[in-house]
Amino acid sequence: MEVVVFLIVIALLGAVVLVVTAPLRARAHVRVAAREEAARADLEAAKESKYREIRDAELDYRTGKLSEADWRALDRDLRGEAVEILRRLDELDAPAADAPAPDAPGDGEPGGR
């Protein structure tokens, strides 16, 4: 009998802990999502900035401000940096890509396409 009471008390205590800590766990999830969104925004801004640098370098070459050798070296470096930014953006998207896609309406229904 005492064991049953003890198990009931432990179960109730566990339920209370889950209810009390639910808001804390939810906030932690929101903070992680906010950090990921901030990282994505930073990378998107860096990507656009890098694309602008590539265009500016090409314009400088075409207007004679850069020699072809300097432009090629600068272009190679800038494009390498852009590829790295794109790779990091892909890494952020990777967990979302692993998630199963939601079923389209009509899937599994006879004649529903």
Number of extended strands:
0
The average pLDDT value, as a whole number, equals 84
Low-confidence stretches: none
Net shape: rod-shaped
Spell out the helices and strands N to C.
HH
Major sheet? none
Portion in helices: over 70%
Tell me which oligomeric state these chains represent: single chain
Radius of gyration: 27 Å
Structural class: mainly alpha
Kindly estimate the percentage of residues that lie in beta strands according to DSSP: under 5%
In words, what does this structure look like?
The protein is mostly helical. It has helices at 2-62, 68-98.
Quick overview:
Helices cover 81% and strands 0% of the residues. It is mainly α.
Descriptive terms for the model:
mainly alpha; 81% helix; rod-shaped
Secondary structure layout plus pairing:
Layout: H1 2-62, H2 68-98
Helix pairs in contact: 1-2
